[in-house]
Every structure is written in C-alpha cells, then in structure tokens.
What does this fold into?
Amino acid sequence: MTLASQDRLPDRGRLPAPASATRVRRGHNGPPWWFVLPALLLFAFVVLAPSARGVYYAFTDWDGLSRDFSFVGLGNFSDMLGDADARQAVWHTLLIAVAITVVQNAVGLALALGVNSAIRSRNLLRVFLFAPAVVTPIVTAYLWRNLLGPDGAVNSLLGAVGLDSWEQDWLGDPDLALWAVVGVVVWQFAGYSMVIFLAGLQSVPKEIHEAAAMDGAGPVRRFWSVTRPLLAPALTINLMLSIIGGIKLFDQVHALTGGGPGHATDTISTLIYKDAFTLGEFGYSIALAVVLTIIVAVASTGQYLLLSRNEKAAS
It folds into this structure.
C-alpha cells in the first residue's frame, strides 16, 4: 500500500467550497429584474402606451370625438410655425420660465440668508414664509385674482396710502398681466426655494466661516468665496425645479387671466387647453404638447449638464 504524495493530501483545515458557489455568486450580482417587472408593465400600460398613441395623434386631424380622422404628417407642426398665437405662446412660456427662475431663486436665497441668521423669530419666519407653498396653486391664483382686480385690496391699499396714481387694472392690462402672473408664482414658491437654500446653508461648516473671518474676509467676501460654491447642489435643484415648473405653468395663468387679455398671457399649456377643449382641434393641441415636451426635455437636460459641470468645478 503506497501513501499519497504530500502535495496531493487534502487540506484538513479548509472546507471545500461547493462547486456551484461561483455560479450562485454570479447569479446574485445583478438586480432581480423580475421583481420590478409588474411595475414596469403597469407603467408601460398607464404611461408609455397612451403617450405613444398621443404622439401618433399629433400627426392627424383628429377632433377628439370622431372615430374618423386623417393622417396629415407634419401638417400640424407646419401650421404651428405659421400660427402667430402659437409663436407668441412659446415666447410667453420662455419669458415666464426665465423670469420665475431668476426672481424666485434670488428672493428665495435672500430669504434663506435672512432666516439662517441668529434672530429670535427665525423659526416662526420660516413657517410663515413657507406657508404659501403648501396651498393649492389654483386656490392661490383665485385669491390673487380678487386682490388684483380693479376694486381689489391692492388698489384699495394704494389709494388708502395716497398712491392713487399707482392703481392699475393689473390683470386686464396687456402690459402688466404677464408680470402679475410672474409675481403671484414667485410669491407662492419663493418660500419653497428658501427651504432648499436653507438646507444648503446649514450644511456649510461654521469653522470655514470662522476661519475666513479671522483672515479678514467680510460678509460679502465670505458669501462669494465660501458659501456660494458650497450652495451649488441646492442651486442646481432650485434652478431645475423653477425652469421646469415655469415652462409647464398652467393653473395660475388659467385662473388669473385665462390667457388674456386677448392672448397677452397665453402660454403653450393654456393654448393646448383652448385648442383641445374649446376649438376641438385635438390633433393640433397634441402637436403643441409634443413641442412643450421637447422644450422641457431640452431645457432641463441642458441646464442639468451645465450646472453639474459648474458644481464639479466648484467642489
């Protein structure tokens, strides 16, 4: 009887791994996709399929009721280029989105800097300033519609303090109505931007500010060189939310002015509503909706890429 060679003897202190261990580990590396399959199927049925069908109707002359419609190709989009109301609505949409984004974030940042100080009433002020953001936009719009009317509280207040010359038909003047809408939206959501900026401000270490102050940096210099770069993530979130919300704005415009006077405050969203439910041009309105979707996608993607690059540079 011969003994096995030393290199062939089994290692008694080591348990042999099962042959399928490697296969088991490989099987668990990826996510279990079949768990999310029901949700994906539901999302495709509720969102993707209707959206795809809607895009198809954008190339037809469907009136929203009849089963008979014709395929018109790019006819709706070519009509859009020649439609003065559509071009004006696109311009109003972009103007409102830019104005809301700039003013709302400037006011929100100023409010955040104010309530982040050591004043005693800062907690009460935070609640008070954020409160309008939790009110339904349509309720806020109807409230301000009464306040900004010819006999509303705003004109009454101006008259009471001797500023009769400032009294205006805020929502009936084509030159003022658009900016009145912007003011209402900023009033409601500046507190929302404030909360996001406030979260960013409270994440800035106090030691950095103290070190900058010891080096002789004043408040403005400390904000520009210390606080501003560290607020880049909060700024990215606020700008994204503001620009997307401004482009899709509908509730406030519809409740305040209905797109009027004339077409002075019409946006793409209000024009979609009018063409679909007033004029019965569903194919044309869906084409407008497709254009709105493209604008939102391009604006949000471009803004995200630009802000992400700046955020990485600041960090």
